[in-house]
Batch of 3 targets.
Target 1
Amino acid sequence: MYCNIRVMPDTFGKIMRDAVQGHDSSYIIERDDGFIRNTSGLQYIRKFDEWPRVEQLAVEEMEGPVLDIGCGVCRVGEILVERGLEYYGIDTSPLAIEISRKRGFNNVYEMSADKLVLPHSYFKTVVLFGNNFRLMGQPEGVVRMLRGFHDVTTDDAKILGGSIDPLETGEEIHLKYHEMNREAGNPPGLVRLRNKYKGDIDDWWYLLLCTKELMKELGEQAGWYLEKTIGEPKYYVGILKKTH
């Protein structure tokens, strides 16, 4: 079940390792227009009562077996295993997978979301929390990922996809970035980023923040329909089901 494809420095893995060990895990996310955001790796180890309310509500929609995409160090796995659900996770960070196994999660694998090597027609829920609906960056990459979920899920499966709605902002620097994207023929929420952490600098990578309309459109292209969304206007979770 292994797929060793990592090409960037394992910055996220180091951030999560330090957070788990109780060390400072503050890092920088830099956008290609120079916008900088300081954040913390503590978000990857938050306990259930510290999660965004929308994710707490979305857990009630889950049925096992559950596949957690971009599982990190299995913050989602903790609550699901506690509730008796069968849990699997994948991540492209070798260090995150190593840490997860040390924490007692055995069904976790180093693997890309668009190159799944997992049991056929097995999972009833696919989880993409923390903006992970946008993992594959460009719209065509997201569609390719969603199509791949067909092979590993049951006929009645659902996807729980988390995303920030990029249009839910009034900040001029973000609005200008949206306009630059539109002029280039891209969705407004397509961003090019890199992480900086304790001397490590990632390669540039793309992230696609989806409006609800774009999530619906990409889902339909891949054979999933957006049944409903839950949560706040800015960060929401879309629930997608297979088109029959």
Target 2
Amino acid sequence: MSQEDKSIAIIDNVQLQQVQATMSKIRQFQQIIRQSFVEGHDYGVIPNTDKPTLYKPGAEKILMLLGLRSEFDIVDSTRDFEKGFFEYQIRCRLLHGDMIITEGLGAANTREVRYRKGDPYTLDNTVLKMAKKRALVDAALLVGSLSDIFTQDIEDMVDLEEVPVRESKQQRRYDQDGTITRKQVNRMWALAKGSADIVKQALKEHGFEKSEDVPKAEYDAVCYRIEQLAEQQEMEQRPLQG
């Protein structure tokens, strides 16, 4: 039997009413995502790209809405301390109970453009977390049938200096000399849950006075520290709330 015949055989066995019902549910779910997700926190708009890019908080919301949990495995890794090269390939499984629903893959390494100016020996954990995040986003896009709404996190995969953009003078102030973009600044504040003290502390620890002074190569490290401080603050406040 040819490939075409096999495809026709599969189509012949499909219950069209069930397909229509499923497609209707997918469209309804996509509409909910469009209405409830927050730009700058759940997703971002990268100039000159066709689709918004899904961020980690948005991917986590998709899992929560669908009642799924995530598990991660290191598929492959390189930790070369002599050459200062660190690379991780991560698989993210999404499960409903004990049933595996889908999987996503993500990779990151210290030779990416955004990390080349940094100290590779301090970026080992950063690229591991980045690979995990990319795998999570990949899996979330698959499970939610959301690839026609969002794309993978382009902001993490390309150097925005390479993207030709028509910007206002105010926007260029955040991009000059390879510093982070306005949307990246907003995202830092979102990770800090609006806490100026957390942002200031993370910036101070990395040697910066203002958020717009952060180089793109240092962005992930600063965001990671902001997340740590926000989680620490939340844990410290929990006994008071109970």
Target 3
Amino acid sequence: MKLSVGDKVKYLNATGGGVVTKVIDSKMVMVSDQDGFEIPTLISELVRIVHEEAGARFFNERFETPSNPENDHGKVRSEEEELQLESLDPRLIRNRKSEDIYLAYVPHDQKWLITGLVDIYLINNTSFDLIYNLFHRITRDQYRGIDYGSLYANTRYLLDTVSREDLNLWSDGSLQFLFHKEQLNNVLPPFNSDFRIEGKKFHNEGAYRESPLIREKGIIVKVVSLSDYLLEKE
């Protein structure tokens, strides 16, 4: 990958990113982060964000929406929230045999797994950028919007940090996806599916397992396998 001064980039193995301010040589550039600090960084550890592309324009666009005091989960991604976006391990991407999307539940306390706060991630282990919509099931035929947004290919995003009492809002609902690439042979149809995780699973330490997707112990639920989804549509 060739980088030029002014290119916006994100780190592959760390959170955050910045702007290229100087090309040192064919392998290294200077990156200015959000605090204005310039850091020499290997090009192999960066991914470029091309704003002129249609998908990139959507992912960097900001929308103004009226606040709703009864439901503050569905919120627009701010610059602070962008820092909650992390690239997946390059080895995981390189050795990937199928493209899948997951929900992950990761306890803050990795020693006492069934207590304390829980981070909830949406993991995009695919080569597609995503637009997602997340709903909580209130009754059999009624849903409430929880969160919506966009997610780059090969990344994971911290949706929220919740208490154990609020886990039910994130364990029974529905997810929708739109898939985007700059070039592809066929346009993928939108995905829509319900999901449900038994509450007792969160109280069973044996349900929490280590995974390279989260680099810690957690409960991981596969929402969709693109290979299976495309076969089903065909």
